[in-house]
């Protein structure tokens, strides 16, 4: 089972991000989606941008996404 995905995202052409490439890290718990995580502060899955994070109102400078 793949518990960590690294996804490469290219900026859309014609935008401020057109020449940028970003990486997303997605971590899934071992028994996702059958079992919820035991820690209340951890989501069932986590998605963050690996540095550098794109400049966007819903993306923090550390790469975490505000959903």
From TrEMBL:
Residue ranges annotated for the UBC core domain, each copy included: 1-67
Name used for this protein in its record: UBC core domain-containing protein
PROSITE patterns reported in the protein's UniProt record: UBC_2
Top-level taxon of the source organism: Eukaryota
Native source species: Kingdonia uniflora
């Amino acid at each position: 089972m793949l518990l960590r995905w690294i996804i490469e995202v290219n900026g859309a052409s014609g935008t401020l991000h057109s020449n940028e490439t970003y990486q997303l890290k997605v971590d899934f718990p071992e028994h996702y989606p059958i079992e919820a995580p035991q820690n209340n502060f951890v989501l069932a899955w986590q998605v963050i941008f690996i540095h550098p994070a794109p400049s966007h109102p819903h993306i923090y400078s550390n790469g975490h996404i505000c959903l």
